[in-house]
Specification:
- By secondary structure, the protein is α/β, with parallel strands linked by helices.
- Helix content is about 40%, strand content about 15%.
- It has a 7-stranded mixed β-sheet, sandwiched between helices.
- Helix 1 links the parallel strand 1 and strand 2.
- Helix 1 packs antiparallel against helix 7, helix 3 runs antiparallel to helix 7 and helix 4 packs across helix 5.
- The chain starts with a strand and ends with a strand.
Length: about 250
């Protein structure tokens, strides 16, 4: 059975599920990570917000290629296959009038812009066009943190759902450090919780893979040392201090 992870951006699956991916690969099971919003910016000037992020990332030139290369290194380290879809990140998308749809950090959190109603169908069609086996398990972002791209990814996955696929929802790290944000994403649904235990080796593989996303570290952590401490502490909390774990949810 193929384990198929849907990652909104070029780090979400590894940040959230890297230990589980490492465990699955170690067990000889195939893993593929499909990043939906892995495309390049459209031609034309970028918003000041996007320019600011590029400068922080140290990827002023060819940021898309740079981030895809980071993802390829991370997934190669874990032994997973990477697929990059061409849809651009929210910070690059513009409306019909050319005005940025998400011109600030505040704008990227919350419901997607109404002008993007058709984007869910386009994402679902792109997923349906992938050459996938019939027996797969799909891992879908739950929407913890309410990032618009994560919400779009979840809606697209639920619209697509191929036959034979069973959806597991993963809580996105680092937003999942907040129990309140996890509960908000779960809402009132009937969920079954699934905790996947990790060995120290699985966790170390995850930490090494996260470190491959060097452009993103400064946006999420003070430095690599803090990253390792926080990720390790979060995995220990999920295992109730009995080793390490990652947490997933299933409907019903």
């Amino acid at each position: 059975m193929l384990h198929l992870y849907l990652s909104p951006h070029l780090d979400d699956a590894v940040l959230s599920c890297g230990g589980t991916i490492a465990a699955q690969v170690a067990a000889g099971e195939p893993v593929c990570v499909v990043t939906l919003f892995a495309g390049d910016p459209s031609p034309g000037p970028l918003s000041p917000f996007a320019v600011e992020l590029h400068q922080r990332w140290g990827l002023d030139e060819a940021p898309g290629a740079g981030r895809r290369a980071e993802d390829a290194r991370a997934l190669n380290l874990l032994g997973a296959t990477a697929v990059h879809l061409p849809f651009p990140d929210a910070i690059y998308r513009v409306g019909p009038d050319g005005v940025p749809l998400y011109p600030s950090r505040e704008a990227i959190f919350g419901p997607p812009h109404p002008v993007e109603a058709r984007l869910v169908d386009e994402l679902a069609q792109a997923l349906a066009a992938l050459n996938l086996p019939s027996q797969i398990r799909i891992y879908v972002p739950l929407g913890v943190g309410q990032h618009g791209d994560h919400l779009l990814a979840r809606r697209a996955a639920e619209r697509w759902q191929p036959r034979g696929g069973a959806c597991w929802y993963y809580e996105e790290y680092p937003y999942a450090e907040s129990p309140d944000q996890v509960m908000a994403a779960l809402g009132q649904g009937a969920w079954r919780e699934q905790r996947v235990p990790l060995t120290p080796a699985h966790l170390e593989a995850k930490l090494a893979a996260i470190a491959c996303y060097i452009s993103q570290i400064s946006s999420l952590f003070a430095d690599l040392t803090e990253m390792r401490e926080r990720v390790r502490a979060h995995a220990a909390r999920l295992a109730q201090e009995q080793g390490y774990a990652e947490r997933f949810y299933r409907i019903g």
